[in-house]
Amino acid sequence: MSKNQVSRRQFLSYTLTGVGGFMAAGMLMPMVRFAIDPVLKANATGDFIPTKQKIADLTNEPVRVDYTFTQVDAWYESEVTSSAWVYKDDSGNVIALSPVCKHLGCTVDWNTDKANQNHFFCPCHYGLYTKDGSNVPGTPPLAPLDVFPFIEKDGFLYLGKAKPRKEA
Amino acid sequence: MKWIQEDMEMFVKAREYLDTVVIPLYPISFGEDVKQTANMTEFINLLTTQLERQFKGRLILLPGFTYFKKQDSDKLVNDLLQWENTLISEDFKHVFYVTSDSDWKLKEQELTGSLIWLPALPLELLDGKSRNTMIDDQVKQLLNLFVKRWHNEL
């Protein structure tokens, strides 16, 4: 007992360091949490919107998959239903294309133009896209259809935010 | 395109591609048919919004022609004809009116543009999901009408 004597000075400095440490941590923790908050959010599935489409049910024929999300216009919130064209390509990869025409934003349809079978067709100005979403030269659109990133969760398809492609 | 600044910026750049105007006709009444007219307005508003989404690049959806049911119908037709003339002088080729108010059906011949009359769905009885599907279905049928009209011009 006599060997491990703690002096009054030592005792006080230990206690002060301890209490000071707690106080510093109490101040810094919320700040750090604020700073890294965006990173934590992105890690959650939040950005992917669930659909009713089962991945196993997809064929190589594009189907319309609807999804609903909440859109906020200033103070006005509304439920908006949007859709995607989804199919499996020859090697079995899932492809999800945006139905928004790259010309002026109409909604394109699959296989509705009799003269051009198996194309995506825009009824507004007769824009055409091949099945993989590439625009057919000579028609108004100047870029391929946007592509949705997606994830599979419990067998269902979850769609992210459509992204433009680089190659024409 | 909607009558909002963002869309009109695009319109100025791509004017030659937009040759169609859609004018919803919204009745207002505070008499016995107050609920009916409100429902008509709500229904046509939802329907035309969805229609605009499909044909964003070819038509402009105007904010709507709003009138009181009590107003003299001949005067309303005259007002609408003035709208029409203004639009034609702005180089629009097609004018569509969309309404649930059947009174317009009687005046259809006097208008140059095409009148689309659809009976309003009882929106209060529908929940969000089935409402959307029903409106989607109705819009799908309208799409053909528009596409045919555009084709005839060629």
From TrEMBL, chain A:
Coiled coil: none annotated. Pfam families: Rieske. Gene3D superfamilies: Rieske [2Fe-2S] iron-sulphur domain. Keywords: 2Fe-2S, Disulfide bond, Electron transport, Iron, Iron-sulfur, Membrane, Metal-binding, Oxidoreductase, Transmembrane, Transmembrane helix, Transport. InterPro entries: Rieske_2Fe-2S, Rieske_2Fe-2S_sf, Rieske_Fe-S_prot, TAT_signal. SUPFAM superfamilies: ISP domain. The main subunits of the menaquinol:cytochrome c complex are a Rieske-type iron-sulfur protein (QcrA), a cytochrome b (QcrB) and a cytochrome c (QcrC). This is Menaquinol:cytochrome c reductase iron-sulfur subunit. It comes from Pseudoneobacillus rhizosphaerae. The gene is petC_3.
From TrEMBL, chain B:
InterPro entries: DUF2487 (IPR019615). Pfam families: DUF2487 (PF10673). It comes from the Bacteria. This is DUF2487 family protein.
